[in-house]
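Researcher: Predict the fold of ComF family protein.
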Amino acid sequence: MGDGIIKYLKDIFDNVLSVLFSEEEQCPLCEKVVEKTSLCLACRNKIDSINEVFVISGEEYSFKGYSVGVYSNAMVGMIKRFKYSRDFQCGRALGELLKEKILHINIESPILTFVPMSSKSYKKRGYNQSEYLAKVVGRELNIPVVNTLYKCKETLDQIGLNGSERWSNVDDSFKLNEGIKIKNRKIIIIDDVITTGATAYNCGKELMKNGAKEINILTVAKSNV
Ligand SMILES: [Zn+2]
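Model: Structure tokens for ComF family protein follow.
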């Protein structure tokens, strides 16, 4: 009887350990077992990849932009689950995609930063999805992640605004955090989705004004609407 209980408890303990320390992960889209927290090859191939570099220009600067893929199909589902349903398995898989992309871009000793949220939006969501992605990449590739910027004015949601409204909505809406040293640094700004590029451009502009050497903008997805 006593032995039976001990065996029963040991089985439970082993099960808990196997969950905690399992090497096996599931593809967040089809649940097929994969080695790392990433998409399986079949789901990876459903992403419409973007290989070309694009340019995000404003009045003062031009920055290079890179995206993993088009904001469509599998990408939309994963980003929405991560952003609005606290699905961090999708978040980690998206971080893995960014990691692959950074390895291709090959920028020498960069630092990573991310588009900040207003404190009101942060409180509502509980996390900044862009910061989360930057931290996944930073940890995997051993690149420092620096919280460079804060949002200094409340802006409207960019969704629902047209192109020129989006630019004026976020104009001068970011400021450098106190004590942040970025002089002569090459910076990669991480965000989830890029559309007009107005938000990321204004982040880059503030970093350039404070002495950054080079700005690159890297997002998981690129949307045309
Ligand atoms: Zn899959």
